Amino acid sequence: MRFQALFVIAILVVGGLFWGAADAVHPFGNPGDAPMDEYFLRNAQRERGANNVVTSIVFDYRGFDTLGEAAVLFTAVSSVAALFRGKGWQ
Amino acid sequence: MQHPLSCIVRTICNAFAWFVVVFGVYIIVHGHLTPGGGFQGGAVVATFMALLLVSHGATKCLGWVRTRFFYLMEHVGLLTFIAAGFLGIGVTFFYNVLALRGGLFGSAVALGPNSGALNTAGTIALMNCAVGIEVVGGLSMILLYMVQGVLHVDKPTLRGKEEAGHDR
Prior knowledge:
The complex is a heterodimer of chains A (90) and B (168). Chain A is mainly α.
């Protein structure tokens, strides 16, 4: 019983937070200022010499993030190898 | 999975697998010009292994390939990627030193929409190729390990004669 009351209070608190967050979002169709997007669109081609701005963000401006993605893939391969490695075939 | 599929499927897969490889390599190499890149193109190239495994059966296919090759591919790709990141350590990690310098991947691009040249974008193109090699090796290795893991499961355990382990 006490746990149920606790759950109700938690739901109310989290729901209130979500309501506040949704209320503070900019109105639909009016994204507001986006200085970062403007910077990338204007300067990425000149600075990095790549036609594909998305790739220049993924592999250059945020290259460290891509390193993490590659590490995630490496971890996945390692875990699959550890799980399925048999005796007969190496 | 263990037995080959029909002759029609095998013929189609034999022909189609190589086109898949060509298309994937195109996506990887043109990563800095067109949508796509190392991860996506690598996944497309890894479809080669999946097609062969499904159409020809696991027992035959495992005799054709070595995991060590894909293992090597994955490590070479990841190390090349990190090394390309360390090329720009004079400024910051992952700084693009090769871009707009001339030489390898160093040509300047025309601003605005244009058809693009392959010899641009500096370390971005290098990293695309490295990540592509890594993803090809990694995904192919996942496929091969899973298939050979299924192959080595004991038949009685798989069939489940009397469902052991329920009443304990």
